[in-house]
Design a protein that fits this description.
By secondary structure, the protein is α+β, with helices and mostly antiparallel strands. Helix content is about 35%, strand content about 15%. It has 2 helices and 4 strands, in the order ααββββ. It is globular, with a radius of gyration of 15 Å.
Length: about 80
């Protein structure tokens, strides 16, 4: 594991901590609303930098990788049909 790999879980925890402290709540919908409301002027602050997201939930001006694992195998885009 490199330093970048270790920083990702820390950044996620930092974002969740900020959401919980700001909303004084652990309700998923409340936290999601707070995270969705982040902007360039009011981002989530992490060790990886500032984060805020578009209407699809993708980070703005940040690289990202989305992989889903099923049965020990990565499933990448395009996602296969669910059966």
């Amino acid at each position: 594991m490199n330093a970048g790999d270790a920083a990702i879980p820390l950044a996620v925890c930092q974002g969740m901590e900020q959401a919980i402290r700001a909303t004084e709540n652990v309700d998923n919908e409340t936290l999601m609303e707070w995270l969705r409301a982040r902007t360039a002027d009011e981002p989530v602050k992490t060790v990886l930098g500032d984060f805020y997201w578009d209407e699809w939930g993708l980070p703005i001006d940040r690289p990202f990788l989305l992989v889903q694992w099923q049965n020990g195998e990565p499933i990448l885009y395009p996602k296969p049909d669910w059966r």
